[in-house]
Amino acid sequence: MAILDLPSDCWHSALGIAKGQQPTALVLEGTWWRERATRNRLACLSDVRETAFPDIFIGRHGNFEVAYCCAYGAARAVEPAHIFAQMGTPLLIQIGTCGAVDAALETGTVMVPDRVIGRDGVSQHYAATNGIMLDAANSVLARKILDRNAVPATNGLHLTWPSLFAQSDAMCAEWANEGVRTVDMETAAVAAVAHRFGASAVATLTVWDALSAGKSFLDPLTAAQSAALAKADTLVFDVALELAAQVEQARNSYNKNP
Questions:
Q1: Distance of CA 191 to the CA centre of its chain
Q2: CA-based angle 88:89:94, to the nearest 5?
Q3: Cα-Cα-Cα-Cα dihedral of 160, 135, 30, 222, to 10°?
Q4: How far from chain centre, in Å, is Cα 251?
Q5: Does residue 217 register a pLDDT over 90?
Q6: 59, 94, 123, 124 — which has fewest CB within 10 A?
Q7: What is the per-residue pLDDT for 218?
Q8: Are 248 and 22 in contact (CB under 8 A)?
Q9: Which pTM was predicted?
Q10: How many beta carbons lie within 10 A of that of residue 87, not counting itself?
Q11: DSSP track, 23-62
């Protein structure tokens, strides 16, 4: 049977997770620096274990569990997103970095998009790609947490594209004309999967390169930009854990008073 037609029982069985015991949230991160990112994120959790599928981890935060996977690109990110959303994990969170199409956005600003366009080659198999909405309440809460910690946050239209390298100045200009503010390689696919399986999705993406100014990740940052990028990069995982805690609290309240 093809993957899209598999029942959720297959994933419970494959990962050894009983129904009702799936993690509260799945946090996905797209980066080349997989080993460093994984080490840093898992250090924030306890009782960490790697699942039967490599590079997919589950750990405990307080009284609930969180899954984490460093997955670069839509084709990779869609796999753990699909598994956990279909199992019933209620919240999918995409973290990582993005490129700024909007010239007004500075390095270290965190984009928490309201809507994402999927042109990544994967999203269309799960949901319409001309505008996938992310969870409004969780997005508002994420921006409040960032603001509380003195990290600038913004919102707006975001684009997911298949490759960091297959981007030209002309493309960036076209995207800006569409109203796109930022671009990454995973968010739309994760949001589309969430839409298909009834989960919520939110993204907190730290602006790195200024594409509107013709600058890529190869261009050096100033000391201030590097500090802002590092601060936001650390905080987005804390935000993810706080969002997951809110979801767990709401779920427990419902179970006590259905």
A1: 9
A2: 140
A3: 90
A4: 21
A5: no
A6: 124
A7: 87
A8: no
A9: 0.95
A10: 24
A11: -SEEEEEE-S-HHHHHHHHHTTSEEEEE-SSTTEEEEEET
DSSP sequence for 188-213: HHHHHHHHHHT-EEEEEEEEEEEGGG
Q: 224 with 102: CB under 8 angstroms?
A: no
In the chain, DSSP finds a helix count (H) and a strand count (E) of 7, 12
For the chain, give the number of residues.
Answer: 258
Mean residue pLDDT across the chain: 95
Structure tokens of 90? 């209620």
pLDDT in tens, 99-153: 999 999 999 999 999 999 999 999 999 988 789 999 999 999 999 999 999 999 9
Token pair belonging to 20: 């009702």
Q: Smallest Cα–Cα separation from 187: which of 200, 202, 174?
A: 202
Examine the pLDDT at 253 and tell me if it is beyond 90. Answer: no
Q: Which helix (H) or strand (E) holds 93?
A: strand 91-100
